[in-house]
Specification:
There is one protein chain. It is built from 14 helices and eleven strands. A hairpin with a 2-residue loop joins strand 10 and strand 11. It is 44% helix and 13% strand. The protein has two domains: 168 residues, 3-Layer(aba) Sandwich (Rossmann fold); 263 residues, no CATH class. It is elongated. With 478 residues, the chain is an alpha/beta fold.
Length: 478
Amino acid sequence: MAAKIPRLAIMGHPNAGKSSVVATLTENDQVSIDKRAGTTTESDVYPVVIDGETVIEFIDTPGFQNPNAILEWFQANDGQRDLARAFVAAHRANPLFAHDCALLEPVAEGAGIILVVDGSKRIKEKDRVEIELLRLTGRPRMAILNNLTNQHRYMIDWQKALNLAFNSVREFNAHRATYSERIKLLNALKSIDQRWELLVEGAVDAFVRDWERRTELAAGTILELLRIALSYRVSKAVSDHKLVFQSDRNRVKAELTAEFEEGLRQLEIAAQAQLRVHFRHNVKTFASDSILNQDLLSEEVEQTLGLSRRQLALVGMAAGAASGVTLDLATAGHSLGAGAFFGAAAGGVLGMVGGKALAKFDIERAPGTHRFTIGPVSNPRFPFVLLDRSILYSARAMNWAHGRQAADEDAADRVPEKVITKQGFTEELTSAQQRELGRFFAAARRGREVESAELCRKIIKEVLRGVALSEIDSRNAL
């Protein structure tokens, strides 16, 4: 009976990267991956389930133990209609071929083949034997050159050998493949057998639809983070008898400032956890030199992300016109007054952003008490910094290969951590888009719902689409 979904057995030498390929293609970072050879000792099935339905299955298989003996048997029984099925039936009870039967069982049942080879290593006679016996199975088959280092001298030899026996040969690094590269590889599966074309096309369409849904969810998560963060405030009532000296007031301000700043950090952390869920990551995998690992309120982040001063001025005027206030450009680069705002001396890592204080500090007097309140965020640049950080985090989550866990972090060829040096994403938006975001930010500070929220969601979604479908560049911090 013809298969209703594509089933693909991932084959290759132990430690060639089979499990990493499975983890990346299935977006499953729980696939058991080990740098030691021979970790996989039996076939494990990893279905890709979308909307409750399995759309494709990948089968992680053990490596061949007796390829020469299998090839000899195939050649001696070339009259058999289905060599893989016949071999398994003939040797299933033989302990000597236990691993080989486990490997060939999915093929015997009709699965296609993806052979994974490490193109950085010299091709050996054993490789040629395995390539030939897989050709003799007659199954639809693709070969993946999973080059795990920067060594390319043997790639041509691999290409020549594989092209003679496989319907498609692709270069694919499971440790660093982006979403776009994964989709290209899945699309290439359509070419391995015409009978598979519709099946694979259906699976790819399901992937794309699901990705669109997850991108929509990510945009919603980011928009909600901005809304909550911009309306966030912290208050504390203190009895008069605890405020005898000015130092007592300063202490309360410092404590409240630290609580306010930590609250903003925790809001971002919670949103990042949601973004990881959207893109099926269970572990944090950011390198220490990434700007994403710098403190949200650090000077480095503030100087790197957000809008330029000129862009911020235009956005401020647009937002001010909508809310009845204007951006105080005359004080750019200076404190806005110690009485109304807290400065760096009040405590916390970020007293200022772009020359302006982060938030208002108010004190209300009541009989026997003072109520200290900080927030909401009033700094016009901060929401653009937070938005840039969220897009950067999403870009990493979208493009971070799930098979990345097996990569050697000390190797010179590890996935490069490109630090942003010029600008963030919001700086490249059109002036109209920046103004629309500015209006939303102004309304969020006042706790109001605005019609522009849906438009802002679309703006964020389009940026996320771009970081998933375009090539990685230095701006993405990937």
